[in-house]
Amino acid sequence: MNKTLVFWAVVLASLAIYYFFNSLSTIFFPFLVGLIGAYALDGTVSRLERIKISRNMGSGLVVLTVLLSFILLLMVFIPFVHQQIITLAAKAPTLADGWFENAKPWLAEMSQKFGSAMTPDEIEHKVSEHLGIIFGWSLKLITNLLLSGMALANIISLIILTPIIMFYLLKDWPKFTASILGMIPKKHVNTLLLYAGRIDKTLSDYARGQLLVCLTLMVLYSISLWAIGVKQPFFLGFMTGFMSFIPYVGTVLGLLATMANGFAHFEGWNQIILILAVFISVGLVEGNFLSPRFIGERVGLHPVWIIFALLASATWFGFAGVLVALPVAAIVGVMIRTTIEWYKTTKYYLS
To answer: Which residues have a Cβ under 8 Å from the Cβ of 259 and sit 6 or more positions away?
Structure first.
């Protein structure tokens, strides 16, 4: 009976925790990022302490450096994307005219085949007439989305609230960990330290592996885009590689930015095809060699488990879930493997 009560208590507690965090998902993001940042940067602050810089001062310097770096990236990336969209909107009618000239024979054939009342020239005139309006409206829509209430709130919370949370967590991190350890029953301390040690090693391996993957992708994308003649290849390659720490999402954003750049400086369909070929090729290298070698093997995550973790986290927690999907999956994997090791030492398994 006691075991049954414990089981249902664990189930109910898990459901309560899930619904608690799900109900607060709109304000959860800055706290989540702050916690991840504090965990990742604690080692840096500790090293500053060893060279006689106080914990408070070191935490402030580290958080300020991260904040300024993030703001600098935004100041460079957002105007770049904005300018590419404006250039593309301005050149859209000219591009459309060129494409229609090439497509006229095909349009004429389709008009005769399906009995269309409009000639290819009339279709071209209608589309060219409204193409600039369409791009202008699209630009306005993107601007409105970026400045919408939720997006603006997320940006403000990320820039203002997250550094504050990260600073307080960083400066008191040793106290937090000591308090948590002090609440654990003495007989379970060694077991907890075993789990914590393995989780910490796994997350450290994940961080180092992800850094290696991003750096390698920066080089691959930059050189490849430069080789096919894309404008601003090193900036686009750097940003695509940098954003690749968000699995799949970073690559898609990089592809969209590069395609917008390609159409804004359109010189022929060959380059557009080459851009697609570059992203597909580098994506295959990442998926079949880089990520398995630097991340999968280090943290013990099977590709199927990685895909499931990404989809499940995105479904439950949205964009914030995508950011933490792989670290959380790595933690769960460590706990499952450690539990299986313990299970294989029990009398039930050995009998």
So the answer is: 272, 275
217: amino acid identity, one letter = L
List pLDDT tens digits, range 288-326.
788 777 776 666 666 677 777 777 777 776 666 676 777
3-state secondary structure of 272: helix
Contacts of 84 (CB under 8 A, 6+ apart): 257, 260, 261, 264
Give the separation between CA 210 and CA 295, rounded to whole angstroms.
Answer: 6
Whether the Cβ atoms of residue 96 and residue 125 lie closer than 8 Å to each other: no
| CA 150 – CA 319 distance, rounded (Å) | 13
Residues 118-136 have pLDDT tens digits of 555 555 555 555 555 555 5
Cβ–Cβ contacts within 10 Å for residue 61, how many?
14
Q: 319: which 2 tokens?
A: 């964009």
Token pair 């369409």: residue: 134
Amino acid 290: pLDDT: 82
Q: Return the structure tokens found at 343.
A: 């299970």
Q: Name the helix (H) or strand (E) containing 103.
A: helix 55-114
Residue with tokens 């690559």: 251
User: Of 260, 216, 210, 259, whose CA–CA distance to 238 is shortest?
Assistant: 216
25 and 317 in contact (C-beta within 8 Å)? yes
Residue 15, CA distances (Å) to 3, 8, 9, 18, 312 in order: 19, 11, 10, 5, 16
Whose tokens are 């080459």? That residue is: 274
Cα separation values, 278 from 73, 152, 313, Å: 24, 34, 29
Q: Measured between alpha carbons, how far is 77 from 331 in angstroms, rounded to an integer?
A: 33
Which of the four pLDDT bands, split at 50, 70 and 90, describes residue 217?
Answer: very high
Contact between residue 322 and residue 230 where contact means Cβ atoms under 8 Å apart = no
Boundaries of every domain in the chain: 26-183, 185-341
